[in-house]
Design goal:
Largest sheet: 2 strands, antiparallel
Strand content: 5-15%
Oligomer: single chain
Strand order of the largest sheet: 1-2
Number of helices: 13
Length: about 325
């Protein structure tokens, strides 16, 4: 009989070393695997059972280490790391590639007419709002009013940017006009993410020591977390919105697309999807998920509290969100 699996495997942390970019990339290639959105409720419940029991020191009979790690990544793909709640399907990281390739591809195909710009920027910001809410850091609730303000502000910012730049680029090269959706998406990310997570900026996010003992809530940690997420989201969109315009500008001059213009959208969506398969996990891996900062960079009152109650702590840790 095979030996029972040890209960000492640390499944609180990813399988690969998160202090290196390569380790984080391997982790996020697994987290963003689009196949995870096809998992049934029964498969999610099974993974939840394995992980919950393992954390309590109970090992399912016959469970192997590979099966344990697979269950962990299935569990992580569907349940929020801080609240433990099941996340909205299209807000999960595994939905990023299929959702973004469709929305981005259409934004970049139908960028010339005002109604199309309005529609696709609205769709994109609706999706972003769901993703930002689903992957917020910490266990801080967000009110309907805050949610509505963030959504309306980001959508207005994206549409205004897109329409304004479209007007400015009417008399320049068509290639320049193809980059308008990217500028709008970048501007919207700078608005949407901070607004969607404004409660974290106002009240802070949970910070812990290296052993996961909670030390309090920090707005400084929230600022760092949200800044990192904004940067990675903009860079995540860059390849899919910067490379296809050059290829499509070239392809649309060829006989094939002149004969079959309806193929433009599927080709563009496929090109964006190919870029996103790699850009999504690699840009998520730019910064550690379990981010950290020195105690000296925290709010003065929080520094005093930590130094008084936990004198040996020099660095604090927090979930930056995605």
């Amino acid at each position: 009989m095979a030996a029972e699996l040890s209960t000492s495997i640390n499944i609180k942390e990813p399988r690969w070393d998160q202090s290196t970019f390569v380790g984080r990339a391997k982790h996020f290639f697994t987290v963003t695997d689009p196949r995870n959105i096809l998992l049934t409720n029964e498969q999610l419940a099974h993974a939840h059972k394995i992980i919950t029991e393992y954390r309590q020191g109970i090992v399912s009979p016959g469970l192997t280490e590979d099966e344990l790690w697979r269950a962990k990544y299935v569990f992580d793909s569907a349940f929020h790391p801080d609240t433990g709640e099941k996340m909205i399907l299209i807000g999960r990281m595994s939905a990023q590639v299929p959702m973004n390739m469709t929305i981005t591809g259409c934004m970049m195909t139908f960028y010339k007419s005002t109604p199309a710009v309005l529609f696709w920027q609205w769709i994109n910001q609706s999706f972003n709002a769901i993703v930002n809410y689903t992957n917020r850091s910490g266990d801080a609730p967000i009110t309907v009013s805050q949610l509505g303000t963030a959504y309306v502000s980001a959508t207005t910012g994206a549409v205004a940017t897109a329409l304004g730049l479209n007007a400015l680029t009417k008399h320049v090269s068509p290639l320049i006009g193809r980059f308008v959706p990217f500028a709008a998406v970048a501007a919207a990310n700078c608005i949407n993410i901070p607004l969607m997570r404004q409660r974290e900026l106002q009240h802070g996010i949970p910070i812990t020591d290296e052993n996961d003992n909670r030390l309090g809530e920090s707005t400084k940690a929230a600022q760092q977390a949200i800044s990192q997420v904004v940067v990675s989201r903009i860079l995540m969109a860059s390849p899919g919105m910067a490379i296809p315009p050059f290829l499509m500008n070239h392809l649309e001059k060829k006989a094939f697309l002149k004969k079959f213009p309806w193929m433009s959208a599927p080709i563009q969506v496929s090109l964006v999807g190919f870029c996103l398969v790699f850009a999504t996990p690699l840009c998520c891996a730019l910064f550690p998920q379990r981010s950290s900062m020195s105690v000296g960079r925290l709010e003065p009152e929080l520094q005093e509290k930590i130094r008084a109650n936990h004198p040996g702590v020099e660095r604090v840790y927090f979930n930056k969100g995605l």
